[in-house]
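Researcher: We plan to redesign the surface later, but first we want a full-length starting point. Tokens attached.
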């Protein structure tokens, strides 16, 4: 069964509904399709000690790794303080995504025009850090 981009976006929106964002009021959900075609989701979880919070993308990646996924084929990110609004992964999450991405990985997120766009990791993180 193939999961469409619209279904992936909807999964990110649904994950967003479970975010624990008591401090910022900015909820984020992420949904990943891995190299085996499996869906993994995550939401942001904040903490009173701000550095201990967790981004939605990191949570979805952890769920993917736990289930045996090795590569991100596509990831959708939906965030905002109320309704879904423009929200791209933060710098740290761009690096996290890159760790499990290749040149075909697509990041789907809403841009400033409030349209859903597809980006490669190279577009979002040019000259990213690699150990290979």
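Model: Full-length starting sequence:
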């Amino acid at each position: 069964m193939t999961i469409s981009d619209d279904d992936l976006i909807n999964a990110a929106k649904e994950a967003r509904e479970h975010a624990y964002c008591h401090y910022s009021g900015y909820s984020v959900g992420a949904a990943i399709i891995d190299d085996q075609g499996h869906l993994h989701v995550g939401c942001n979880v904040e903490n009173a000690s701000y550095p201990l919070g967790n981004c939605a993308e990191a949570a979805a990646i952890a769920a993917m790794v736990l289930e045996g996924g090795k590569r991100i084929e596509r990831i959708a990110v939906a965030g905002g303080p109320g309704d879904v609004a423009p929200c791209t992964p933060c710098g740290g999450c761009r690096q996290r995504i890159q760790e499990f991405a290749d040149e075909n990985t697509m990041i789907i997120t809403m841009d400033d025009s409030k349209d859903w766009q597809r980006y490669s990791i190279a577009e979002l993180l040019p000259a990213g850090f690699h150990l290979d």
